Amino acid sequence: MDNSNVKNIWNNWSETWYQKYRTEEVITKIINNPESVFHPITWAMLKSTYSNLNGKRICVPSSGNNHAVFAFHLMGASVTSVDISERQLEHSAEIANKNSWDIEFVCDDTRCLGTITSNEYDFVYTSNGVHIWIDDLNSMYKNIYRILKSNGNYLMFDVHPFTRPFGDDIEKLTVVRPYNSTGPILIENVPRFTWRMQDLMNAMISSGLCIHQLEEMYAEDGSFWVDESEYTVGIHKQEQLDKLCDWQRNPLAALPQWLSIKAAKHT
Fold first, then answer.
1. pTM exceeds 0.85, yes or no
2. 125: closest CA among 197, 77, 192?
3. Is the omega angle on the peptide bond into residue 184 within 30 degrees of 0, that is, cis?
4. H or E element that contains 23
5. Which helix (H) or strand (E) holds 121?
6. Is the pLDDT of residue 228 over 90?
7. What is the CATH topology of the domain spanning 4-162+182-234+256-264?
């Protein structure tokens, strides 16, 4: 798949609605509490793997808003941020420079990681929103395996595939596509993919990664079901958000919303 359209979309988003992820308030929160970047269960999985990140070499492909990158740096790791969007990286580098953070930023495609050296990293992390843009999971995981050191670890956090068949109706379950309809689905003339559990896990296993732990999690608050492009503080009161987490009022809340998988390269 030609990812030029993906790059253009993310470069545009970086200049528009994605600015809200770079506000001084958001960055200050990360500085004061780096672990707040992670879902509590994902954070627990990370802590069970590394009690201390000091000196660890970490790569974050499809780094997006770079919140995880900033958090890892603040925890003492040596971090490489990789993304296909030059503008996302440029804005994140500005934040890093402002705070005198020594972070490496690399523009590259997560499917190939062509500029990233093999057997280089102790840990690779991918966060929410990565897999939907990837048309070749096998290539992505083959190269994540390649860049990991022997006995290095991988951890992913993303939307649970079980949410993919359903629409946005919070009063009743509405199926909008079969679970095995993985795409491509054209949105804004760009193909996106709704991978199943088996697609994710088989790609990891085929790469050589050994899966150690899988966790299915629920949203921390009702903002999970609010369109981010329309969400502003004050429109949705806390009481409304709490109702969205009640599966008897919002049947979508009966399903797990998030997924984390931990794997390792054993050679």
1. yes
2. 77
3. yes
4. none
5. strand 121-126
6. no
7. Rossmann fold (3.40.50)
